[in-house]
Amino acid sequence: MADLHPVTDPPRVVLHPDRPPGVQDAVLDLAARGVVDLVDATSDADTAAALQVSGSVLVSYRWRPEFLTDGLSWIQTLGVGVDQFPRRELAGRGVTLCNAQGVMAGCVAEHAIALLLSMTRRLLDSRDDQRAHTWTPRTGAELSQLTLGVVGLGAIGRQVAVRAGAFGMTVLGLRRTPGPVAGVDEVMGPDRIDELCDRSNALVICLPGGDATRGLLGGEQLRRLGDGWLVNVGRGGTVDETALVDALHRGSLRGAALDVVDGEPLSARSPLWDTPRLLLTGHSAALSPRWGADWATLFTRNIAAATGGGPWASVVPWEPPET
After folding, report:
1. Catalytic site residue 89?
2. Of the residues 122, 175, 235, 254, which is catalytic?
3. Binning pLDDT at 50, 70 and 90, where does residue 83 land?
4. Is 16 a catalytic residue?
5. Is the pLDDT of residue 225 over 90?
6. Which CATH superfamily is domain 12-103+288-306 in?
7. pTM
8. What is the signed CA dihedral for 250, 251, 252, 258, rounded to 10 degrees?
């Protein structure tokens, strides 16, 4: 990791106005306790101006080129994805980038399992029946009889595997470096993704974004998944959305649920809105009343690291992250 720019004590934290619920309260609490010196920005321009001061720490989902100032010391993101940040340029300038890896991983995993259950138990069909005032008993699949493929075994993927195992599912996993993972019956490398799709009744995608994962699930993989189900709580770009729309219209897939899409917010003109057997949940998998407090715990660890008080919790490597 490159040497940091000088960091003030307490760190001067510039909070971007676009943040999840609970973050502002969490940072205000840190400020009240003297852990940080807070600048609560109201716009992109306000953020960029505040970052001119030496030793500033940026807390943000968003990135704008004007944020890369001589005063920027390090960045704490408000999510796991970092595609928007110019990692090589930041590295060249000695600016450390930390994401929110592990924050609310259990919450995201619960959301993924809820999405899967909503499809296997045909809850959306039952909701349509209710709206039509039609009493229609429907037969659903049992998770205990299914094999789940978890694509990406980071913090979220491992939590998905644990929960799937509690339902009695056989769990297969895919990650860049194969090896034993608790709760996963078999771990495969990326070169076996076609085999994973062949052997799975359902897939849960928990991958980070970037060139290494873009379009990983394409038409061939969806064909191999057959009449299964797809859930994506990772990054939208990992799934070929054109191929997915085609598979759902043809009826070859029984269902798909996307918490993330390639380009958010989703355009009003996107065909995804009206695709049959598709559920969209607006990138809400990690949102919980506990989000701000959970994130603040990680942020506090990184503040301590920046001021020489311990190891960093979530530094983003300049190479593609482990999946």
Report:
1. no
2. 235
3. confident
4. no
5. yes
6. NAD(P)-binding Rossmann-like Domain (3.40.50.720)
7. 0.88
8. 100
